[in-house]
Amino acid sequence: MFFNHQTRAIPVGKWDAMHEDDKGLFVRGQLTPGLSLAEDLKAAMQHGTVEGMSVGFSVGPDDYTVGTSGLIFKNISYLREISVCTFPANELAGVTAMKASTASNLFAMRRPG
């Protein structure tokens, strides 16, 4: 898990679960306890200042079509990373829930369909 696709930085957390459902990609993750950026991100997410998610991926030349409102992806060849982000490419993709945990903060993110 990264913040704003900064893959050269220390990851801010890890993903515990990931699956595709009728609304899109669902992931659940934990922020890294004690990591200052993760603690700052946790505060921003709880405040609602940061609530987006974005995926970094690759597609093959035949894995997408051009629709009236943008690209339509049929298949993702390689999922590079998933980030919590300030300005997601898809404005519908975002954090849907956060809850406290004894070890760290858990949250779920979903891309609505």
TrEMBL record:
Keywords: Hydrolase, Protease, Viral release from host cell. It holds the Pfam family Peptidase_S78. This is Phage prohead protease. Residues 1-101 form the Prohead serine protease domain. The keyword Protease applies. GO terms for biological process: proteolysis. The keyword Hydrolase applies. One of its GO terms (molecular function) is peptidase activity.
